[in-house]
Amino acid sequence: MREPEAPTKPRRQARSRFGAGATGLLVAVMVVALVVACVLSVFFGSRSVTFGQVIQAFSMPSGAAGDAGQDAGITGEVVRLRVPRTVLGMLVGAALAVSGALMQGVMRNPLADPSILGLNSGAAFAVVCAIATVGLSTPAQYMIVALVGGAAAAALVWVLGSLGRTGATPLKFTLAGAVLGSALGSLTSAIMLPRADVISTYRFWQVGGISGARFDLMAPVVPMLLIGFAIAAVSARQLDMLALGDQMAAGLGVNVTRARALAWAGAVLLSAGSTALAGPIGFVGLVVPHAARIIVGSDYRRIIALCMLIGPLLLVSSDVIGRVVSRPADVEVGIVTALIGAPVFVALVRAGKTAEV
């Protein structure tokens, strides 16, 4: 006989720390900051570019750069490298942030994000296996294998979290993700350690970066990200209900299992797609939803909307910082986001801002 589920105490809905006017002003400032970050992303790189050269790069007809001499190199760098890199930074930043918000809502766990729940470990394990067995070497190959590995890990976490008489629960999802991530991490290390060639190839993908951005590589994944964003928008209201507890959400007419599965699918599409494009970038999906929650409160419609602003701002700004601090070389964005995200998250924890989701 199935034991009755213990009643879930409704969570107190967190409110914004700012008034409506202050919140609107803060959002406007972040919009301006994102525009500035995108402009700086086009200007800064291994080679100095003037404003006139940037204008020339955007106004030059396609194919005209071949006769432009030295300016052709500058034009090619701006158009072929910096613009796709900026666009990829915005896409990946938004996808990781929204994915983190969805996972925190599904799990009712403020520490949930793609890296903690095993999705990044699944992508990494798949990439390492492919490098060791078939000699994976090109960005397109990395993208396909990482996408499959991340999606498979997410599916396995869902299956493991749904086992047992009580079905899918946030606690079982979290435990399943932690166990799977640890196991896959150990297997990844076991495969790499005896193979110096695998370590040498894998380490460039593993740090997470957007320096190799190309529109032709992004194109196949963009539809998947757009579907993920659409699912996030549809799931926002149901996540608000799930935050009240499963029993109360069911009493309000929400199919708890279906709502959780839909939001989880959106999170998987976003996290697996972003990991395939840029490698395993940490802390964005963990920190950004908390920052959004502090600004706009616990309404997931507002949280998800703000994540699509703060995520790109964090990732593009981190990429610009990585280019400036070590010119002419680049510090990959995954390293910079970790350096920024870790102390910010510690500050949030110390301030007690991670208790409610």
Automatic annotation (TrEMBL):
Keyword annotations from UniProtKB, A to Z: Membrane, Transmembrane, Transmembrane helix
Keyword presence, Transmembrane helix: yes
Coiled-coil parts of chain: none
InterPro entries: ABC_transptr_permease_BtuC (IPR000522)
Positions of transmembrane segments: 21-44, 87-105, 117-136, 142-161, 173-193, 213-236, 276-296, 303-321, 333-351
CDD domains with a match to the protein in the record: TM_ABC_iron-siderophores_like
PANTHER family according to UniProt: FE(3+) DICITRATE TRANSPORT SYSTEM PERMEASE PROTEIN FECC-RELATED (PTHR30472:SF1), FERRIC ENTEROBACTIN TRANSPORT SYSTEM PERMEASE PROTEIN (PTHR30472)
Name the record gives this protein: Iron ABC transporter permease
Species per Swiss-Prot/TrEMBL record: Bifidobacterium miconis
